[in-house]
């Protein structure tokens, strides 16, 4: 068994926000949390594409805007 297989994956926090300034402010607040990986997406469609490729990993929190282009926050969380 390799050392990598024993490594703990960071938990993922998703920020889904089309307003760059709001996304940056929230990312700044969350980025220093130990054991967390913060990922930012400009709309629900981009976030959904990321979720589809996670290969069994999980997301522990999603901060989403409700009104965005491509796919809004409500559609994403449904």
Task: Explain the layout of strands and helices.
Blueprint lengths: L2 H4 L4 E6 L3 H11 L5 E6 L2 H9 L6 E6 L8 H5 L1
Parallel strand pairs: 1-2, 1-3
Structure notes:
The protein has 78 residues and is an alpha/beta fold. The protein is built from four helices and three strands. It has helices at residues 3-6, 20-30, 44-52, 73-77; strands at residues 11-16, 36-41, 59-64. The protein has a three-stranded parallel sheet. Strand 1, helix 2 and strand 2 (36-41) form a beta-alpha-beta unit. The longest helix is centred in the first third of the chain and has 11 residues, at 20-30. It is flat, with a radius of gyration of 14 Å. The termini are far apart. The relative contact order is 0.26.
Mean pLDDT: 87
Low-pLDDT runs of 5+ residues are none
Major β-sheet, in short? Answer: 3 strands, parallel
Radius of gyration: 14 Å
Helical coverage, percent range: 25-40%
Lateral strand order in the biggest sheet: 2-1-3
Distance linking N and C termini: 38 Å
Q: Can you count the beta strands? A: 3
Overall shape: it is flat
Quickly count the helices: 4
> Based on helices, strands and strand pairing, what is the structural class?
alpha/beta
Order of helices and strands: HEHEHEH
- Estimated share of beta-strand residues: 15-25%
């Amino acid at each position: 068994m390799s050392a990598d297989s024993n490594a703990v994956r960071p938990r993922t926090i998703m920020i889904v926000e089309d307003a760059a300034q709001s996304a940056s402010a929230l990312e700044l607040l969350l980025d220093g949390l130990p054991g967390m990986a913060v990922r930012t997406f400009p709309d629900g469609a981009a976030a959904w594409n990321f979720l589809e490729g996670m290969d069994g990993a999980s997301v522990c929190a999603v901060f989403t805007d409700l009104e965005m282009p491509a796919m809004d926050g409500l559609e994403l969380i449904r």
